[in-house]
Fold:
Amino acid sequence: MAAPVSIRGVSRKFGETSALRAVDLEVAAGEFVALVGPSGCGKTTLLRIVADLLAPSSGEVRIGSDSAAAARRKRLLGLVSQRPAVLPWKRAIDDVRFTQRIAGRVGFDPAKVLREFGLEGHEAKRARQLSGGMLQRVNIASAIAYDPSVLLMDEPFAALDEMKREEIGEWFDHELAQRPKTVLFVTHHIDEAVMLADRLLVFSPAPGRVLEIVAVEVPRPRDPSFRQDRRFVSIAAHVRGLLMHKEAA
Amino acid sequence: MPVDAALPAQGRPAPPRLLPRLARGAVRVATPVCSVMALWYLAIWFSGLPAFVIPRPERVVEVLWVDHAFILEHLWATLEVATIGFFWANVAGIGLAVLFDILPPTRHMLMPAAITLRNVPYIALISVLMLAFGDTILSKTTIVALAGFFPVLVNTLAGLRAADEVQLDRMRILNASWWQTFSRVRLPYAIPSIVAAQEITGSGSIIVAIAAEWMISSTGLGYVINNAMQNYRGDRVYAVALVATVLSFLIYSFVHWLGRRLDWR
Structure:
């Protein structure tokens, strides 16, 4: 069950340095929002605040009717980091079961999830025996195994090459259609963001503030041919222009 | 839809047959034995030292054979001291590391004392313990524990901090308890470091136990060495040294073997 996310006036300072300035965002249940912007603009900081891994200096985050801390305690949040959090001494299927056991909730059958994630025959393999793409899919499987309402993803496909990245992105888009979640997705990759997201939150360089919220009004999951679509090219060019203009300024 | 394929299976060479394996093992054992023997005989020939200072290897083997009951009896005494001391070194080292990890202020309170204790000459400590407890197992095991706990403490502490931040974030997002995070993530990440400490402390316990016995005891291999020296029995000193070396090596090998099985890397 997806839940709406409400971010109201969230700022964060590290000492005297302002990392994030007054971010407001309303994310509908089941919506996919990509956070794009230059390095150090506060995208990951915002994601960690929503995950209750970092406290905001001001402002608040609500997940449905809960605070971020209450949502985390209720295990409503799932986190997918750039480096897969798969325990190196566990088999893939045991890692998925492990998150369910710790969360105290069995959302999906681990074997079924791994099968649906294209990992049939690899369930008994450990992290070092899996390719980067497979490992990231185990990571996502573990993150959704206890059926969290909101998925927080911090550059999850950054370590993959371009081809693999596109493939896994398309796969993930289709998976979300089966198991709807509200997604906050940090990426540097504009094309990836346009391909996957309902809306793009474009950040200015540090201290990060929202330059513009760009909507991609094409239903998900999207066909790979969307990359050649006039709308895709136009939105990507617009976002690129926003970021380049701001960085030059 | 499968989007990528599994890594190709790693091509592993077939294990060699039994006879070549045995031959290789024999060469591996014989090479260091032969080189030590060669050096030993060369030292006898070129040093000109008397036999009670540097006896011939065959004389040492003879002593081992003739005195084996006597040496074994004292070997058990040394093993007892080393084992109990090793156990308490681990209890103190791992216990303090976990305490420092749970309550960081305790590290500032207790670490200076631990470092000071580490740097006090053991001879002084043995003397004080001898005065306090006399020639008892308590004084000897205490010195073994004091000598061994510091490497265990430092390595365990480093290991507990080696846990991957990504894994810790996952445990936080899962609202895992302290115990779940400790037992399922931090401790397994610390195991390679803890094993490395055991390799130092395990074999070191035998050496420290012998040193303590040499100074204050009337039992154990240390006592046998002391007694043999006073009676100009270099052959017996060498025999005991050989036993102690083999024992330390076996303990190191066992800990190393166990560590490789526990190491998840």
